[in-house]
Design goal:
Blueprint lengths: L18 H11 L2 H14 L3 E4 L32 H8 L13 H6 L6 H10 L5 H12 L11 H8 L3 H11 L12 H11 L6 H14 L3 H8 L3 H12 L7 H4 L10 E5 L4 E5 L6 E4 L1 H8 L5 H38 L1 H6 L9 H8 L3 H8 L3 E4 L2 E4 L7 E4 L4 E4 H14 L8 H10 L6 H10 L5 H4 L4
Helix pairs in contact: 1-15, 5-6, 6-8, 7-8, 9-10, 10-11, 10-12, 11-12, 14-15, 15-17, 17-18, 20-21
């Protein structure tokens, strides 16, 4: 059967964005640390883009005088403003504050935390082990399976099959990883996590370890009298062992996550003024960006070869796009931050429980941006508040109908109330979900029992019958 070739035409609609728009959207998404790394990379690829990490004052960045237009001093590199009006505005904008109020915040410098990520920390410890290359490969694969709590997820049998090794080989390397810090990392469940921590404390022969090893269900159910009978120990000894176990960390990776990026450098900082709060960009560690003077003068020089001029012009456009994208990013993030603090003033004064219902669409309308722009701008961004560092997403809160007074309340407020009620409850008679519904109703918050259960689960709080301490 002969093949027949046939030509046809089709019309297709495709959305193509200009390179500068794509770049602007990508820069808008970056948080402070990502932006610093991005600028370093671009400075290496683009000779016209100059990144000055000395963070010098604006007064030291000035345009060249007429006498600098020629002569050997052209080779000197100094970040300057370009000829475009928007570039000049970018370097002089945002200086409305009083100079004394714009001094570096010493308190913030002490609060910045720069930990490694969990995976980075474990990989470093793995690299210090005197083991074979094959074991290093297996160890790296095991580390990739660690979840945000530090637990090893998935089946070891499947991992062995993927790596083409035996199950005993994977188990042997897993035991090596489980000796790393933080204690309990690499566990496959809560019981193993707690046992690993006791093993690192050389407490394998103690009563607490025996409880975990032989009677874990009774421990989870807080059945202390049953534990005393099962292990043949007195009730005071069981209570002491129980207290020892409750001091262990059920989430070993908690210090590495904290629901924030691995390196926590807030993008925004709340400042207290005389009668109000203000929000500023945290640009203390952000390098100054400008156009290289020597290459810009070379671009203007008519004696520059045409091929060199084309190359410099291309790089000049790219550098200009980057600087403009940073300007737009900073303006958008700052506008969102100031709008949020204006609308959530009670949060600044009283914490998460005072968050009001607020959507991204509402903020977008107030600052004159599209909701998708707000969504992209707040992704990964953090803000330093009197109550700690928060993700910007946390300042938005969905509303839950409240029938008692016919008004809405934020889900963050309900969660805060639930946490407070459970914290204050009698550990021997914990509050059930129905009891929580009644207690919240007394506080003029009307919530269904299934909603309580949903919020309690999201807060990782056990049901009432599992929170009970039995004697």
């Amino acid at each position: 059967m002969a093949l027949q070739h046939k030509q046809s035409t089709q019309q297709q609609q495709r959305l193509l964005m200009a390179p500068n728009i794509t770049l602007a959207l990508e820069v808008l998404r970056m948080h402070a640390m990502e932006l610093q790394a991005f600028l370093q990379q671009q400075a290496q690829e683009n000779p016209l883009l100059e990144v000055d990490e000395s963070n010098q004052d604006e007064e030291s960045v000035s345009a060249p005088s007429e006498s600098e237009s020629d002569g050997p001093r052209q080779e000197e590199k100094t970040p300057i403003s370009g000829d475009e009006e928007w570039l000049s505005h970018w370097q002089t904008g945002g200086s409305e504050e009083d100079p004394e109020e714009g001094e570096p915040n010493r308190r913030l410098e002490q609060r910045l935390v720069q930990p490694q990520s969990l995976h980075e920390s474990i990989l470093v410890q793995l690299g210090c082990q005197s083991i074979s290359d094959e074991q290093h490969r297996i160890g790296a694969a095991i580390i990739e399976t660690l979840n945000e709590h530090g637990y090893c997820e998935g089946s070891l049998e499947e991992l062995a099959a993927q790596l083409g090794v035996t199950l005993p080989q994977v188990e042997a390397v897993l035991r090596i990883v489980q000796r790393f810090d933080p204690p309990g990392v690499g566990a496959r469940d809560l019981r193993e996590c707690l046992m690993l921590q006791l093993e690192q404390q050389n407490a394998c022969g103690g009563l607490a370890y025996r409880i975990l090893r032989d009677h874990f269900p009774l421990f989870v159910q807080h059945r202390l009298s049953a534990l005393a009978s099962a292990v043949g120990a007195s009730l005071p000894d069981i209570e002491q062992a129980y207290e020892c176990l409750t001091r262990l960390n059920p989430k070993p990776a908690r210090l590495f996550t904290n629901d924030l990026p691995p390196t926590v450098v807030p993008d925004l900082v709340i400042q207290r003024r005389d009668r109000h709060y203000d929000v500023e960009l945290n640009d203390q560690n952000m390098p100054h960006v400008g156009i290289n003077r020597a290459y810009r003068l070379m671009l203007k020089n008519p004696r520059t070869p045409e091929d060199a001029r084309e190359f410099l012009l291309k790089k000049f456009r790219q550098a200009s796009w980057i600087i403009k994208a940073i300007d737009e990013r900073n303006a958008t993030v700052l506008a969102i931050g100031r709008c949020l603090i204006s609308l959530q003033r009670e949060f600044v004064e009283h914490g998460s429980k005072a968050l009001k219902p607020l959507t991204q669409a509402q903020v977008a309308g107030l600052i004159g941006r599209h909701p998708s722009t707000v969504s992209r701008a707040i992704a990964g961004k953090t803000i330093d508040t009197p109550y700690g560092i928060f993700r910007l997403e946390q300042l938005f809160a969905s509303s839950v109908p409240q029938t008692t007074e016919g008004r809405d309340v934020s889900d963050a407020t309900i969660k805060a109330e639930i946490e407070q009620l459970i914290e204050e409850e009698d550990s021997h008679h914990p509050l059930s979900d129905d009891a929580l519904v009644k207690r919240l109703s007394q506080r003029n918050i009307s919530v269904a029992r299934r909603t309580i259960a949903k919020y309690r689960t999201s807060l990782k709080i056990l049901p009432g019958h599992l929170r009970r301490r039995r004697l």
